[in-house]
Amino acid sequence: MTEARGPVGRSGEARAPYAPGTPCWVSLMVHGMATTQEFYGALFGWEFRPGPRQLGPYVRALLDGREVAGIGQLPPDRHLPVAWTPYLATDDADRTADQVRLCGGTLGVGPLDAADDGRLAIGSDPSGAVFGVWQAVALPGTAVSGVPGTPVWNELLTFETVGVAKFYESVFGYDEEAVVSADYDYVTLLVDGRPVAGIHGVGNTLPRDRGPHWVTYFEVEDLEEALSRVIDLGGHVIAPARDGEHGRVATVSCPEGARFALLRPSSR
Question: Residues in domain VOC (predicted)?
């Protein structure tokens, strides 16, 4: 077993392991591994190396040699949505999987070991949104944050927040901070008082071909330049650049159709 490396921040300082419930990893399952690696490599500067093959061909995306995300191959006979999936940290994947079932969710994969790196499960909440569970051993999760090309936020788009927020609170022990507004349905999930993810209720404006789903935000240095690069690389702009609470953001998709957000934080 290899030695676990903790995540590091913007200046390379060591960070504590991910607390239970914190998004700690993101993974994408696609049909064309080579073209997908070309797209994200050119967009974010990622390099790739092979990872555990329990779920088939799989690579780890790296920035400066440190793990950022995973990309895997969908079986040719499986017609599943191509989407980024966040993994939520846990101390016990088996116990969390049991809680998912008890609270009205479903389990699609696992729990199973990913070589010596950890133990995982993939499930869905009662509204159908897919998420992963990660119990770290040798791989704590995403090993660097706060720099362009790394995940910076995860947000669930769903019909309404009340019921689904109770599910995540029951399974992962989150505290909640709701926006008090008649026309904006949003809940921030907190771990030890720190915001870690959001749930946005958007009613019937959800894409009909998607249903409830998680969206991963990746940090970029220059949003307009990144959007131009997305188009040049064969991707699409789903929602143009706009100013948000935490910076300038846009929603895009890669050539295989996986949707994700690009964020230039206000602090940059």
Answer: 22-136, 150-265
